[in-house]
Amino acid sequence: MKEGFKVRSKLEKIKAEGKKAFIPYIMAGDPNLETTAERLKILEQSGADLIELGVPFSDPLADGPTIQKAAERALSSGTTLKKILQFLNSLKVEIKSPIILMTYLNPVYCYGVKRFFQDASKAGVSGVIFPDLTVEEANPYISLAKKYRIDTIFLVAPTSTFDRIKRIVKASTGFVYYVSITGITGASLKLDSTFQKHIDIVKKAGKPVCLGFGVSNAEEAKYVSQHADGVIVGSAIVKAFHESPEYARDFIKSLREAI
C-alpha cells in the first residue's frame, strides 16, 4: 500500500504476523470530548489495533438503542463534526492507533464534503465509514478519500449478492466491514454455517474482512476472529464505559486476549 493509507497497511501487518485485528468502537463526545480523550487512551493501552470513532447524529439508520443513547449524550454536550475534527487534531500526536470515523452523510454534507476530507486528513483520520452511502453513489467520496490518503470502508450484509460483494470490495480500500446480522447494532449474534460460507466468499474477493454488529463478549469475539481478519466491538464497549469505567478496562482487555 502507498504511504498514508494506514488502515489497510495496519491490517496487512497484523495478518503477516499471523494475528487478528481488534477494532473497538466508541462514540465521540459521549458524554463529552474530554472523557472521549481518556477512553481513546484506554483503548490504545488495552491493545486496540485500530479505533472506530462514531460521529453523533440525530437520525441514525443502523444504530441500536445503546449507541443511539450515546449519540444523544454526545449531542447534548454540544459535540459536532467540526469539534470532533479539532479534537482529533489536538490528539494526533498522542494517539498512535489509526482512527476510523464512522459518520452518516448528513453531517459531512453540511460540513462540506471536500472540506471534510481536507480537515480529516489534517486531523490524522485514517479511514471513513459512511453507513448510508451506497457504492453506486460513492465515486466522488472515494476520489476525495484517495486524494487525502484516507481509507474507505464499505459494508457487506449477510444478504449481499456476489455481484454486489465485488462492487463493495472494489470500493473499499481499507477493509470490508462485514455486518454479521440483518439488524441494528447491539442485536444478538447468531453465527451458523451459512454465515461461514458467506464470509468466506467475501474474503475470497481479495480485501481484509472485519466483522461487526452483535459481538458482545470474549467468547463471541474469539469465534469471529477464527473467520475474519478483524473483530469490531461497539455497543458492548459503549455500554461498559457508560455503566462502569473500571469494568470497561478489564472487559476490553478480555476482548483483546480472546481475539
Keywords for this entry:
globular, eight-stranded parallel β-barrel, 48% helix, TIM Barrel, alpha/beta, 12 helices, 259 residues
Structural topology:
Layout: H1 6-16, E1 21-27, H2 33-45, E2 51-54, H3 65-76, H4 81-91, E3 99-102, H5 105-111, H6 113-122, E4 125-129, H7 139-147, E5 151-156, H8 162-171, E6 176-179, H9 193-203, E7 209-212, H10 218-225, E8 230-233, H11 235-243, H12 245-258
Parallel strand pairs: 1-2, 1-8, 2-3, 3-4, 4-5, 5-6, 6-7, 7-8
Helix pairs in contact: 10-12, 11-12
Distance between the termini: 25 Å
Broad shape: globular
Sheet with the most strands, sense and barrel status: 8 strands, parallel, barrel
Helical percentage: 40-55%
Order of strands across the biggest sheet?
Answer: 1-2-3-4-5-6-7-8
Examine the coordinates and then state which fold CATH places here, giving the name of the CATH topology: TIM Barrel
What's the total count of β strands?
Answer: 8
Low-confidence stretches: 183-187
Mean pLDDT: 93
> Into which percentage range does the β-strand content fall?
5-15%
CATH class category name: Alpha Beta
**Assigned CATH superfamily:** Aldolase class I
CA-based gyration radius: 17 Å
CATH architecture grouping: Alpha-Beta Barrel
Structural class: alpha/beta
Number of domains: 1
Task: Write down the secondary-structure element order.
Answer: HEHEHHEHHEHEHEHEHEHH
Distinct helical segment count: 12
